[in-house]
Amino acid sequence: MPIFQSACSLDCWDVCSMKVTVENNQVLQVTGDPRDRITQGFLCQKGGAIAERFQHPDRLKHPMKRHGESWETISWTQALDEISLKLKQLLADHGPTAMIHYSEGGHGGLSKNIDTAFFNALGGVTTPVGSLCLGAGMAAQKLDFGNSYSHPPEDLTNSHCLVLWGRNPAATNIHLVPFIKKLRERQVPVFLIDPVKSASASLADEHLALRPGSDGHLALALAKLLKEKQLLDMSYLRRHCQGAGAFLDQLEQFSMESLIVATGLNIDQVHRLADTYGQAPSAAIYLGYGVQRNRFGGRNVRLIDALGAITGNLGVPGGGVNYAHRHTSQWIDHDYLENTPATTGRTFPRSRFAAFINSHPSPAVQGILVTRGNPVVQLPDTNATLAAFRQIPFKVVIDHFMTDTAQQADYVLPATMILEESDVVFGSMWHNQLTWTEQAVTPPADVRHEFTIFHELARRLELKDFLDRYPNVDTYLSTAVAPLCRYLNIPPDDLKGKRITVPGRELPWDKGVFETQSGLFEFLKPEDPDAFFLASPHQPDYPYHLLTVHASSSLHTQHLRTQPAHQLPEVRIHPNTAETNGVIEGANLYLESANGSLAVRFRLDDRVRHDTMVMNQGSWLRQGAVNHLTDAGLSDLGMQAIYYDCRCRIVKTPAPQPVSF
């Protein structure tokens, strides 16, 4: 039986190498590649579900057109003819900015970027900017380092101290776990900083359950202690940093007591962390993607970055402040891939979708085409988002399943999955592995690759330059990876069907030269707006922090479609908090925020802080989407959503039925 090389295309840390066993065009098995340095022969729950998703009976297999509240199966010819006709009329009557192209990270393969290339060929449509996930941290590290690079996973063996700051590898980055276990075998101290005692606490020597959003307070407290204990690397600061003196001087304005109170920790815990981190020959911080999901998320990351600089833990084996890894992406021709125009169209902050639609922009939005995303439930403030989405006269969604967003569309087009196509997949969050996947099976007869869909639309719209520039998928991918091939001195054909390690950046910043304008690590400046603003507004009407975390079993909504509609989302609450509110195990009540309310079921869990509640994000509308509660505000940097700035209360009224669409 043939075995094909593939890779997981989910927007995840690990981007696993997969081996796909096929017989008679049927996927028999999808396994982790045992020879891969990252995957090491095993997959997570999500990776293991790829074959099930590929063959699921609910998968879309034909183009669909809405008729009132019902759906009609139509031919591709009819679908593309009608969509292109509506696009022509929209462009002629209102111009390209009246059309929104909404795309997310639901598929990590390069070939899917043909959607952006197509819309850029139209002359500049309206697109969202900013981030729902990691943008504030990326912007922070851009200011501090000039870019974001992580140490190779294997370099962790050189560490003498590891700080998992808001990262839960046991659930969301499981291929990091074997490297941590090797540290533990050598009795290297591991600290977990997380408001919740997550599954990763079993990997740590000590868990610091800080108050949500107080990461910057903790970083400042640690910096003060490191300074007081004379654990600073003054030589490194003089040679490789800008603004260190002003940063260290600014620490004096804060009392240690006020910082510790803000974190909700005790002073002994913070002393132990400062001593261990500051005295270690090399110490690594591994950041997760919760630290930055609040209004001061960028500031939080910058203050944590500063800890690496003041201790000289940058550019050394076993060190670093590891957040993302943009090395491989630098060897991709993004201008070609996305057909980058000389001028851009209209933009709006991604999390402010509803506010943008409701602002009555000129020209008004007349159409939207959604690819690789499910904005109706993944954007914050679901009630406002859904109402805004419904206002748009013409809506098209390309997807694998009839998602909540697809349910609101006029046309839904079925797309191929990773096992049915050849694509180039690589990670941008943790490692530098790249895979040119092999097509393992042929797709269902009436399912098409996005490249084909946009090619057919371009032909109908007579976009000759687009058609000439992007003749086929193979040319598209080969041209996109041409810079990488020149770097490696190989032809594109040598990449096909292979998993490679892209060399370079094995030890980020080892020369002490950064990609900032000064060439130095640049500290957060005291005069920066809000840089040292620490007050956390008290909200007596909504006393509890709500954290909406990622489940180990699903990436956002992608794996939760089969969850029963009557099954309420579960909220974890500390037993003492439950007692205060008269809540018992399994109670069905409301959570209410300033943005909306949600019927939930409570579970008592002493691993949660008294002032915090925790629930998994990703439920569909019919089950109770958590973003009914979240706010559509923006972070201080990177125009990022602030999901974790969600305050709520328990309302003891009969739980309503979840909304079903």
UniProtKB/TrEMBL annotation:
Organism: Anoxynatronum buryatiense
UniProt name for this protein: Anaerobic selenocysteine-containing dehydrogenase
SUPFAM superfamilies: ADC-like, Formate dehydrogenase/DMSO reductase, domains 1-3
GO molecular function, one term: metal ion binding
Cited Gene3D superfamilies: 2.40.40.20, 3.40.50.740, ADC-like domains, Dimethylsulfoxide Reductase, domain 2, Formate dehydrogenase/DMSO reductase
Segments traversing the membrane: none
Keyword Metal-binding: yes
Family: Belongs to the prokaryotic molybdopterin-containing oxidoreductase family.
InterPro entries referenced in this protein's UniProt entry, alphabetically: Asp_de-COase-like_dom_sf, MoPterin_dinucl-bd_dom, Mopterin_OxRdtase, Mopterin_OxRdtase_4Fe-4S_dom, Prok_Mopterin_Oxidored
Keyword Iron-sulfur: yes
Any Pfam family: Molybdopterin
Residues covered by the 4Fe-4S Mo/W bis-MGD-type domain: 1-58
